[in-house]
Design brief:
By secondary structure, the chain is mainly α. It has one domain: MFS general substrate transporter like domains (Growth Hormone, Chain: A, Up-down Bundle). Helix content is 83%, strand content 0%. It has 21 helices and no strands. The chain is globular, with a radius of gyration of 20 Å.
């Protein structure tokens, strides 16, 4: 396949981006399920305590452990993806994520098996994190390496649509089962969204089996230019780029979970709002986020992903305190508008994170670089919900510590976007 065909094959690029999107949607669905359940289920049924705040902190700690596992998955599957190919690796990662999530749906709770319940739940969360760590970097690499160079921003944004899709599906699923009586919800209904991961996995695997290997990896094989140990070459040659990419990724990960997972818990536990209202706010935010992702991806093709990332970080820092002020009104309109505005602004950076990271690394270890760089940001910002919960408890239930955290992460990501323009190779 010659370079001209690669550059102008928009149809193939679109099909591969859609295949990447389907996988990231399942990944996001599974991951967000755990975050939502940590807010309204796991804190009661698995991490039991006489103090609800302590139980919530324990549940969020197990949620955050998944982010610690993600760099392990990024390194492991990044090596496989850079050595054996993007296609094979993406089949393994999405299968792993789907199976682990389904198993959570059949795990006995604390009342049934005691302390083994939270321990096993945490182990499954670690395995889920490893799978997710390898999935996102591969999906982005697949989309970028199939895309024409002048349109990489928009094609790299398509897999990012998996995040709001997964949020819609997971929040929608929990919204439906939460309509049942509380005793029914606690007894078995909360498990249904997790069990749905099994049939969804079958659909995704069928689509993933049809994807083609990327032209850039095929050229590496043809020219015998694959790295023996991609991860070693990555850290030896691109450590500054990894740190910059990690900073640029923080808001799209940590900020997002602050505005969804933490805000759900804050609204229900501190403001005594109904779980239905909080889930409705995240659903509305997910719909708006889809539009923001598409627009931001196209804007990246015009002004560069680094510039868009910096802009999104600045906007989020500006709206952080007003967003939490709206949520603190305890009105349905205020809560929904607050969550929607917060998610919309930070999603600007999330839209371009994939193209930004891919531009920092050569094809020989791009899968590893994208995955590890992104998850450096994830492991740092993944603890934001538990830190925010601790600080809000320390402040007597006030929201200003969460707003300060959001500002700090936004500024870090904006700085990463500005620095990325210096190192971008494409």
């Amino acid at each position: 396949m010659n370079q001209t065909a690669i550059r102008h094959d928009h149809g193939l690029a679109r099909r591969m981006a859609v295949a990447a999107y389907v996988g990231t949607a399942l990944e996001a669905y599974d991951y967000f399920l755990y975050g939502t359940a940590a807010s309204i289920v796991f804190n009661r049924l698995y991490f039991t305590s006489h103090d609800p705040a302590v139980a919530t902190l324990a549940a969020f700690a197990s949620f955050s452990i998944g982010f610690v596992a993600r760099p392990v998955g990024a390194a492991l599957f990044g090596h496989i993806g850079d050595r054996l190919g993007r296609r094979r690796t993406l089949l393994v990662t999405v299968t792993m994520i789907g199976i682990v999530t389904g198993l959570i749906g059949v795990l006995p709770d604390f009342a049934t098996i005691g302390v083994a319940a939270p321990l096993l739940l945490t182990c499954l969360r670690v395995l889920q994190g490893i799978g997710v760590g390898g999935e996102w970097g591969g999906a982005i690499t697949l989309a970028v390496e199939h895309a024409p160079p002048s349109h990489r921003g928009r094609y790299a944004a398509l897999p990012q649509l998996g995040s709001p899709t997964g949020l819609l599906l997971s929040s929608g699923a929990f919204s439906l089962v939460s309509l049942l009586p509380p005793e029914t919800f606690d007894a078995w209904a909360w498990r249904l969204p997790f069990l749905a991961a099994f049939p969804l996995l079958l659909i995704v695997v069928r689509m993933r089996r049809r994807i083609e290997e990327t032209p850039e990896f095929a050229r590496l094989v043809e020219r015998d230019e694959r790295r023996s140990v991609p991860l070693v070459d990555l850290f030896r040659n691109c450590l500054p780029e990894l740190l910059v990419g990690g900073a640029a990724s923080m808001l799209g990960i940590g900020g997002f979970y602050l505005m969804t997972t933490f805000v759900i818990s804050y609204g229900t536990m501190n403001l005594h709002l109904s779980p239905g209202l909080m889930l409705a706010a995240t659903l509305a935010a997910a719909v708006v986020e889809m539009a923001v992702l598409v627009v931001s991806g196209r804007l990246a093709d015009r002004i560069g992903s680094g510039s868009v990332c910096a802009l999104g970080g600045a906007l989020t820092a500006v709206v952080a305190f007003p967003v939490f002020a709206l949520i603190d009104t305890r009105t349905a309109v205020g809560v929904i508008v607050g969550v929607v505005v917060g998610v919309a602004c930070l999603s600007t950076t999330f839209a371009v994170a994939g193209e930004l990271l891919a531009s920092l690394f050569p094809a020989g270890f791009r899968y590893s670089g994208v995955g590890v760089g992104y998850n450096i940001g994830g492991v740092v910002s993944g603890f934001i919900p538990v830190v925010a919960s601790a600080l809000v408890a320390w402040s007597g239930g006030r929201s200003w510590p969460a707003a300060v955290l959001l500002v700090a992460v936004a500024l870090a990501t904006g700085t990463g976007g500005l620095l990325a323009r210096r190192w971008a190779s494409a």
